[in-house]
Write a structure and sequence with these properties.
By secondary structure, the chain is an alpha+beta fold. The chain has 9 helices and 27 strands. It starts with 5 loop residues before the first helix and ends with a strand.
C-alpha cells in the first residue's frame, strides 16, 4: 500500500470499504430474514407446502445462532470502518446494526405464545367449585382413579396444557381453527417432553418440544421436523363432553381453572360460529363436503372414517363398521356428548336399540341395559363393559388433509 500511488491507495480503501459495507448489508438482511421467512410461511389462513414449511422451520431453528453470527459480522464492520467513513455512511452502519440486532432478538421470541400465552403452571378445582356452564364442552381425561376436565373455551386460548394425570405425563391440546381436541403422552423413547405452541400448518396447530426442538402436528401426533421427525406420540383416550354430563359421571373430578391473567381473552360461548366463518386453505370442493363440516373421526387398524356430527346427533345411535371392526356411535342423555364403542363383547357381536327416558341402550341379544359409559347395568350382562374406541371431532378440511383415504358415513 505504501508503494502505491495515492490514487491507487484511495481506490483500494474504497474497494475494501465497499466489500465490508456489502458484508454488513448482507448480514443484516440475513438476520432479518431469520424472522421474516418463518413469519411469512407459518401464519394462519395461508397454505403451507411441505417443502416450504420444512425450509421455514429450518430457518427458525437455525435463526438464533445464525442471526447472532450476523450481528457479530456487522459489529466487526462498524469497528473497522467507523473512523474512515463520513457521517452518512456511519448512519447507514448504525441502521444495519439495528436491523441485525432486531433480527437476533426476535429469533428468540415465540410470536405465537405472545398471541396465546402458555399456561405453564395449571391449577385445578373441584367439579362443584368450577364455574363452567353446564352445556359448555370439556375435554375429559381419566387415568386410573384420577379424572380431570379441561374446558374447551380455556383450552382454545392456551392450546396446550402440560399435565400429569394418574401418574401419566400428558399434553392436553386443542386447536379451535380445526376443532380438534387431543391428548398425547409426553413420553417418547423414555424421555419426558414439555410442549409449547409452535405455529400452524394448513389450519392445524404445530407443537414444539423443549427437549429436542422437534415440531409435532397437533391433529396427528407425528413429528414433522427435527431430531424426532417420523416419531409418533401415543394418544391418551379423552372425551369431549358437556360439563354437566362429565360432572355427573365424575363428581369428584378436578377441573382446570381459568388463568386469571388471560381469562378475559378466552373464547366466547359461541366461538364455533366465529371459527366457521374463517377462511380455510385446504380445497375440499372435490369431496362435495363443506370445509367446516364438523366430523367425528375414527381410525381403527389403519382405516379411517368420518361421521358428520349432525348425522350422529340426529340418529342418536349408529351401528357401523370401520374395516372389519363393528362399532357403535352413541349420543349421551344431554343430546350433545358422543362416544364410540367396540361392537364386540367377548367375541359376541351385539346389536343395540335406543332406549327411552335417559336414552340408555338395550342390546337385542340379551335384553341387557347399557349406560353411556358402555357398561351393562341391568340384565344378564350386568357388570360387563364395552371397549371405548378413541374418536375426536375435526373439521372436514383438516380431517381429509391428514386422512386422505378416509371413508365418510352416509345415512
Amino acid at each position: 500500500m505504501k508503494n502505491m500511488p495515492q490514487t491507487q491507495q484511495i481506490d483500494a480503501v474504497r474497494n475494501k470499504s465497499g466489500y465490508l459495507l456489502a458484508l454488513a448489508s448482507v448480514s443484516a438482511i440475513v438476520s432479518a430474514a431469520c424472522v421474516a421467512i418463518p413469519m411469512f410461511v407459518i401464519r394462519p389462513f395461508r397454505p403451507q407446502g411441505a417443502r416450504e414449511l420444512e425450509i421455514a422451520l429450518a430457518v427458525r431453528h437455525a435463526g438464533p445462532w445464525l442471526a447472532g453470527v450476523c450481528v457479530a459480522a456487522v459489529l466487526i464492520v462498524v469497528f473497522l470502518l467507523w473512523k474512515n467513513v463520513r457521517i452518512g455512511a456511519r448512519i447507514g452502519l448504525i441502521c444495519l446494526l439495528l436491523l441485525a440486532f432486531a433480527g437476533a432478538i426476535f429469533t428468540h421470541i415465540n410470536i405465537f405464545e405472545k398471541m396465546f400465552h402458555p399456561y405453564d403452571s395449571p391449577s385445578f378445582e373441584s367439579a362443584d367449585e368450577a364455574r363452567v356452564d353446564p352445556d359448555d364442552k370439556v375435554l375429559a381425561v381419566t387415568v386410573g382413579q384420577e379424572a380431570r376436565a379441561y374446558p374447551i373455551r380455556t383450552m382454545g386460548y392456551h392450546h396446550i396444557v402440560n399435565d400429569t394425570v394418574g401418574g401419566v405425563p400428558i399434553a392436553v391440546t386443542y386447536c379451535t381453527l380445526c376443532h380438534t381436541g387431543l391428548v398425547w403422552s409426553r413420553i417418547v423413547d423414555g424421555k419426558l417432553l414439555h410442549f409449547r405452541l409452535a405455529g400452524i400448518n394448513n389450519g392445524n396447530a404445530l407443537l414444539r418440544d423443549e427437549q429436542t426442538s422437534s415440531i409435532w402436528q397437533q391433529s396427528t401426533g407425528e413429528a414433522i421436523f427435527g431430531p424426532l421427525k417420523g416419531q409418533q406420540l401415543e394418544v391418551v383416550r379423552s372425551d369431549e363432553l358437556t360439563f354437566a354430563l362429565w360432572k355427573s359421571e365424575q363428581p369428584h373430578g378436578q377441573v382446570l381453572k381459568p388463568d386469571p391473567l388471560y381469562a378475559s381473552e378466552y373464547d366466547p360461548k359461541d366461538w364455533e360460529k366465529h371459527v366457521a366463518k374463517t377462511p380455510t386453505v385446504v380445497d375440499t370442493s372435490r369431496s362435495g363436503i363443506a370445509p367446516h363440516q364438523l366430523m367425528l373421526g375414527v381410525t381403527v387398524a389403519g382405516q379411517s372414517k368420518a361421521y358428520p356430527i349432525e348425522s350422529i346427533l340426529g340418529a342418536k345411535l349408529i351401528q357401523d363398521r370401520v374395516g372389519d371392526q363393528p362399532l357403535i356411535v352413541v349420543v349421551g342423555r344431554d343430546g350433545a356428548s358422543i362416544r364410540v364403542f367396540d361392537g364386540m363383547l367377548e367375541n359376541r357381536h351385539l346389536t343395540f336399540a335406543q332406549g327411552t327416558g335417559d336414552q340408555r341402550l338395550t342390546d337385542i341379544d340379551t335384553g341387557s341395559v347399557w349406560n353411556f359409559q358402555g357398561c351393562a347395568i341391568e340384565g344378564t350382562l350386568t357388570g360387563r363393559c364395552l371397549t371405548e374406541i378413541d374418536a375426536h371431532k375435526d373439521y372436514w378440511f383438516d380431517w381429509i388433509n391428514h386422512h386422505p383415504e378416509s371413508a365418510v358415513f352416509k345415512n
